[in-house]
Amino acid sequence: MKKLLSMLAMVMVLSSMISCEKHDEVVSAASLPYEVTAFVQTHFPNVEILNVIKDYSGQKAYDFEITLNDGTRLDISKNGKWKEVENYKKGVPSSIMPMSIVAYVTDNHPDAIVVSIDRERGYEVALSIGLDVVFDQSGNFSRYDN
Prior knowledge:
Shape: globular
Order of helices and strands: HEHEEEEHEEEE
Number of domains: 2
Strand content: 25-35%
Structural class: alpha+beta
Oligomer: single chain
Number of strands: 9
């Protein structure tokens, strides 16, 4: 009986912890921090913000998922540091990429454009020709990824 009560108590505690977790919410572009707005205006001039989702990864930790009217999707932290940028129609602006990545793609795949870039423990770049290229944190070529 004690085991059953113990397990029931643990289940209740776990379910209350899960229910306390914040859910993603749609917010206005006007509520974005200055750093995020400045990033968008700098790298995507004359492009309108269509949708902003405040994406919670914990009780207080969150990022923004932003959709622009040119087809760009951004995953960006509240301090303006991008995590992922993708635009499968126009490509990703070279102004956000390390110059070594821009140079590598230009030299080795001149007919390709970067359609997606993700940075976590380095950079993962998707090219319009169907290749994924991995670079280290400094932007140096590491390998092709399948």
